Amino acid sequence: MFARTIPLQIPFIFPIQEIPKVHSFHILLERIEQHIEIPEEIKDVIELNDYAVQTRYPGDYTPLEKEEYERALKITKRVLNWVCKTLCQQ
Fold this sequence. Notes:
Blueprint: H1 2-9, H2 25-33, H3 49-55, H4 66-89
């Protein structure tokens, strides 16, 4: 989970403020939107919340289907690319 939330927290560096200690992409997106515009396709990251919660408790989750895994990976890559692009513009 840590690796997935850090990219969304990075834009908080620019308007310097305390980074919220949450694991909800919805809340992080709301906080980030107070400072920068977030493209709609980046908001798909909210779909990954369920995976983060499920994998916190070993053995208490259902395995992903290949299509689900590929979609999660695609979303993650899209978010990381957007964060890198956003940081380069700052």
